[in-house]
Design goal:
alpha/beta, disordered C terminus, Aminopeptidase, globular, 9 strands, 6 helices, 5-stranded mixed sheet, single chain, two-stranded antiparallel sheet
Length: about 260
């Protein structure tokens, strides 16, 4: 298990460093390196803004690449629980000596208004040593790395001691509040993503003198809480900031300006 985990983490780290790190460096790329960039570009240039984009299209695009690489129809499935909402589940078969591992990334991104950007947010641009585009970091670099690595494993005939499952989910950016992403997969197709452990976003690649020296693993995550405040009397608005500033767990002045 330790060896398998190190292989996957090393592959993620190297792909991230070579193509998705900061700064991105122009270079002569091998065929496999170019594939990684092509997958990355394709994902970034599909608008998958949670509210208005199309994660189903992105899921189908990644499924097409995996099938073209030799994955069977039964090992690459796309689910669309709602219009424009898509989840992909793919599996690289291993020997089955150990339980599967799950690679998890999300396809949706937060909004990007063209007027707020100096470049088109839905075009992958390499400029001044950096990649520009919505989702270049969160989280399409990881989705692209997973897809590119699975294709490489298939091409090289890699036979791990466990199945490697890839799940690309929708609606992570809104905490899957409509239960169309990972919650839908757990409810309807738990058997397809059942694994001994999973690798998700959160860790980072550490660089020293331009070379990767570590791939960190985040073991816990903060949980956001949405709070809505409303008032019936408009005249109370002038007291809102003062009242809000006094709210704290201990009932003391919080220092909120």
């Amino acid at each position: 298990m330790k060896r398998m985990l190190l292989v996957i983490l090393a592959a993620i780290a190297l792909v991230y460093w070579a193509y998705f790190g900061e700064p991105a460096r122009a270079q002569t790329r091998t065929a496999q390196q170019q594939l990684a960039v092509d997958v990355y570009k394709e994902l970034v240039e599909i608008n998958t803004v949670t509210a208005t984009g199309d994660t189903a299209r992105a899921a189908e695009a990644m499924a097409a690449r995996l099938r073209a690489a030799g994955f069977s129809e039964s090992n690459v499935q796309v689910f669309t629980p709602a219009p424009r909402k898509g989840n992909l589940v793919a599996r690289l078969r291993g020997t089955g000596a150990r339980r599967p591992m799950l690679l998890l990334a999300h396809l949706d991104v937060v909004g990007a208004r063209r007027e707020d950007w100096s470049v088109d947010p839905f075009k992958l641009i390499e400029k001044d040593g950096y990649f520009y585009g919505r989702g270049t970091a969160d989280d399409k670099f990881m989705a692209a790395a997973f897809v590119a690595n699975l294709i490489r494993y298939k091409q090289e005939g890699y036979n791990p001691d466990r199945d490697i499952i890839l799940a690309l989910e929708t609606d992570e950016e809104i905490l899957d509040r409509d239960a169309l992403g990972i919650q839908w997969l757990l409810k309807n197709h738990r058997n397809l993503i059942d694994a001994e452990f999973a690798l998700n976003e959160g860790g980072s690649v550490g660089l020293k003198n331009g070379k990767p020296i570590r791939n960190s693993v985040q073991t816990s995550e903060k949980v956001s809480v949405r709070v809505e405040e409303w008032q019936a009397d408009p005249q109370q608005r002038s007291n809102q900031r003062e009242s809000f500033g006094k709210l704290s767990a201990g009932g003391e002045e919080s220092g909120w300006p």
